[in-house]
Amino acid sequence: MRNTVLTLMALAASLPAYACLKNGALDTCQYPPLNDDNGLVAQFTGINDESAAPVAGAAVNLHRVTLTGADSRCADGSPAVMYVRNATGAVNQSRWLIVLEGGGTGFDPNNTLDQAMWNRWTGAGPTPLLNWLQKSSTDWLTAGGAIGRDGQPDLPLEVVVGGILNGAASSFSGWNAVYVNYCSSDGWMGQQAGVEMPGAGTWVEGGDVWEGFKMDFHGHDIIADVLAMLDDPASWSADQNPEYQMPDISDAKIVFVAGESAGGNGVMENLDFIADTLTAINPGVQVSGSVGASHKPTIATPADSWWLDGNGNLTDDIEEGMISRWAQVLQVNGFVDQSCLGAGGTYECTLLPLLLPSITTGVHVKQDMSDPLVSSPYAVLPPLPPPFPLNPYQDGIITDYTDWIATGVAAFFAPNCGVHASLTGPAYFSDVLQQREFTGGVIGAIVYDTVSYDEALLRFVAPGLAPVQIHHGLTGTTLGGNDYVWVSPPGC
Question: How much is the pTM?
Answer without folding.
Answer: 0.88
